[in-house]
Amino acid sequence: MIATKFGFEDGDSHKGLNSRLERIRAVVDASLKRLRTGHIDLFYQHRVDPNVPIEDVAGTVKEVIQAGKVRHFGMSEAGVESIRRAHAVQPVTALQSEYSLWGREPEAETLPTLEELGIGFVPFSPLGKGFLTGAINEKTAFDSTDFRNVVPRFTAEARKANQTLVDVLGKIAARKKATSRR
């Protein structure tokens, strides 16, 4: 199974979003060539691009599916409204979003919507981007290029406040003769 993504300019999140229809088609063709395969099993939109109607994105993915280049459409970190609008044009097979004991936001609206629509869920960062392993604490200094420097829950104060969760996980792991480390 091959899954890949589109949605950032040249695949670089620092360059901004680009889900223009011609870009989607170009990414499919470039991915097929680079991966030396005849099709992509799951083609994710990496992030919803507010400059391109999601219906147009889904329609373009539908075209590449009909052309046999892609088998299934996925979305990454999309909201419920975007999922529903895209799914009405081209069924969405999977949604990828962050989900862990530290980030349970999908439970409120996203997971029930996915269940209703028959869409699979692919969680990422189940260990809270490393925090739940116990390897990170309030004194941890991230490299200047580390994205966690700009994520509010990774401030020293937030890490200190959430340390109790890590301690509880460590105790549960010890009781189970397991580790909370990666």
List the helices and strands and how they pair.
Elements: E1 3-6, H1 21-35, E2 40-45, H2 54-66, E3 70-76, H3 80-89, E4 92-98, H4 110-117, E5 120-124, H5 156-161, H6 163-175
Parallel strand pairs: 1-2, 2-3, 3-4, 4-5
Overall average pLDDT: 94
Number of domains: 2
Number of strands: 5
Strand content: 15-25%
Broad CATH class of the largest domain: Alpha Beta
Question: What is the element string, with H for helices and E for strands?
Answer: EHEHEHEHEHH
Number of separate helices: 6
Helix content: 25-40%
Overview of the structural elements:
36% of the residues lie in helices and 16% in strands. It has 182 residues and is α/β, with parallel strands linked by helices. It folds into 2 domains: 3-126, Alpha-Beta Barrel (TIM Barrel), CATH 3.20.20.100; 130-182, no CATH class. Helix 3 (80-89) links the parallel strand 3 (70-76) and strand 4 (92-98). The chain is elongated, with a radius of gyration of 19 Å. The mean pLDDT is 94.
Summarize the structure.
With 182 residues, the protein is an alpha/beta fold. The chain has 6 helices and 5 strands.
